[in-house]
Amino acid sequence: MARRYDSKTTIFSPEGRLYQVEYAMEAISHAGTCLGIMAEDGVLLAAEKRNVHKLLDDSVLNEKIYRLSNNISCTVAGITSDANVLINHLRWWAANYRLRFGEEMPVEQLVQELCNEKQRFTQRGGKRPFGVSLLYAGWDKHYGYQLYQSDPSGNYTGWKATCIGNNHAAAVSLLKQEYKEQSLEDAKKLAIKVLWKTLDVKLASEKIEMAVLKRKDGKTVLEELTDKELETLIAEHEKKEKEAETMAEKMPTPSDQTELAFLRLLERTKKLCDNVETNAHKIQAAAGQLEALLNKMHELNKAESNELVQYTRELNQLRIISQVAMQKSAENKLQQIERIPKLFPLLNGGGKETEEKEEEIGEQLQSSNEIKLKNKTIYEQELRDELFHRIHQDKKEIKHDEMQEQMANELLSLTRSLKENMKVAGNVIKDDNQRLVRMQQQVDSNEERLSAESVRLARHAYKCGFDCMLVFIVFFIFISFIWMVLVMKIFPKVSDWRKSTCQQSLRPQYRCLTHIHMGMRTGNYNVFFEFTVVIPVIKNLCLEDNLSNINALSPFVLMLAVLYSVILELATSPTSQVLHERNHFKDRYTEEQKLLDYILFNYEKAVRPVKNSSSTVVVKLGMTLTNLFDMDERNQVLTINVWLDQWNPADFNNIKSIRIPCDLIWLPDIVLYNSADDYTTGYMKSRAMLDFDGTVFWPPPTQLRSTCKVDVTLFPFDYQKCSLKFGSWTYHGFQLDITNRSNNIDLSMFVQSGEFDLVKVGLTKNDRSKTQSRSIRSEKSLGTHAVPSPTQI
Hints:
The chain is of the alpha+beta class. The protein is built from 17 helices and 24 strands. The chain has 4 domains: 2-250, Glutamine Phosphoribosylpyrophosphate, subunit 1, domain 1; 257-392, no CATH class; 491-577, no CATH class; 611-792, Acetylcholine Binding Protein, Chain: A (Distorted Sandwich).
């Protein structure tokens, strides 16, 4: 069946299998064994060296562990020629990464690169998969020590300990049992033990290769073990194996493995009886397995008849115990308990009938206590002597286990106390949060009440003041009226003067006008109040025959008009006390403060500072290049640091220069058209310098990232040309004219880059005009030429 689907790599079988890839993996399973173990202080790699011949030159192509970079090494299992090709790829990728980025390549990234290459060979026609599996050991600053494995399909996985090659399944199983967090010395002993049990030949120093990767003095080093060190490790392990064999010979063994399994399961089931209610189903399941083992023992007939009877009785008792636990009513449970025979001391019923039956059975069989004691002795002996060929723990390991158990108990107690403390703290925090919420709500309600009360008091004060003012005005009018009446009675000749004045005032219009001018200065504004009081006079009152009535009413009406104007002015202007305080503080201003008040009076920064909308604002744009930070060839982005000099006219005097925040004045919206960043404000809000002639100088420092077309054909000796195009985003050329501040870019503050050399810079102005739309777009371009510095290559 497979012959129809293994002719090409890219053909799947009906079962979804790629036979060519499976064949490559099968070739690896016949190669030499390679294993890797990750320890706390490093990573160990070990490999089997095959075809050892006395005529073979060891210095030529005899290595099984390869160094890929300063931080990464690997070992291979499979076809040697394929391994050489992949090793060259790995070393080239690692060296190229170090050359481009100035640091070592991360371990997982290098593994991914090779797996991508392997995977491509499983999808291309006319090529076969690589018959090599690799174990990678490395260290990087991101994840520390790492151990990876990759297969011919392009898949890779991370491991703590693993094995590839011949007998890898048995080696992985043994590593799974024996591995624990350990040091490199323990990892060496474990590697020797695994190779001892998995290799088809006797272990010798010339047949294996072992190396450890670790950190030393801040550097990653790969140390290969010498033949003498390997012989020492092999000798130590061989000595332990002999001691284990000697102890195994002395250990008593059970007569039958089935009986041993029965006894072990029986003892564990008895321990479950300590909590029958919870473990009832487990006891019932264990009873079924015990029955199967007991039937097998009857078939083999390996055990004595009295022991089989005792085993049968104990099995029946376990069944009854499980049935009792599964009964729901108390009466049924009591009936089941009475059926339990007197086997275990804790479950004795104490009945006479049971004792009589025990005496009868004791005549034919051994005492149940003796059998139980014998079974318990066998089980304890089994556990104590480790019948499954496990090495006895020495005193250090026992002490270590005891310390670990003690630390685990202490940690558990600390965890419980911490959990309780966190629970208490959580309750306290919850109460505090609720209390704070209530306090905040109370504060908000108090603020609302205070604001309402303040409004009410303000209205009340205004009303009281207004009432007082009306009383004062009425009183003043009354006194004035009495005074005027007395004056007219005492000085009757004044009527002629009033008559002439009124006639002059009522020449053509038949009305009298009174102008009251009041002025004051508040803050930054000059406020002038002009009231025109029109005194309507009926025509017939101003005729010659009724002038006496006009003379009698004119002073009184004039006084009412004056009082009305005074009341209106006081109601619509600040009080005299506030004006006095404002003028008092105004006198304490500095010259620059007064100038700033004058400049910003009726100033709007949202529009251009021109009186005529057709006028053009001239902006002089200059640059001071300070740094050339980066040239990203992959994304084609140039990052530099410049100073932008922006000029726009304003109108102020008195002081020749003043520095104010740039947010207070209008600034042109000059942007970098070919920016590689998002269009957000990247300028620092530095202060703007204002001169007396209306010139504004604003030098904001900024860092710009622009798009730049890069040709890396001659990398790293390439020559690149990058342009920066500046212009206004919303204004056209008739509104904003951008000109060059200087003939060239200021390089007085430029700091030379270690990676690129600045060859040439220049400034050009581009004017784009359209006759129909009558719009001009002013742009300014900055050209830079950069080549890599030879000192960085």
